[in-house]
Design a protein that fits this description.
This protein is an all-alpha fold. It is about 80% helix and about 0% strand. About 10% of the residues are buried.
């Protein structure tokens, strides 16, 4: 569908604006369905830090999507 294509293009563009670490967190969380704890282990940080980073990244993406 045309709407799906537009959504994918917008998502691709938005993701390209992120820093590599931010992109990695979003990829692991939403495309690989990993938990915050699993991501935290891979990045060597706490689950709480991943939660905070994820919130900031999503806010940034929402603001840029407007």
């Amino acid at each position: 569908r045309e709407d799906d294509l537009i959504d994918r293009l917008l998502l691709k563009e938005l993701l390209s604006t992120l820093e590599p670490r931010e992109r990695q967190i979003i990829f692991l969380r939403y495309f690989r369905d990993e938990t915050q704890s699993e991501i935290a282990k891979k990045l060597g940080v706490s689950q709480v830090q991943v939660s905070r980073l994820e919130s900031k990244i999503l806010k940034k993406l929402r603001e840029r999507a407007i």
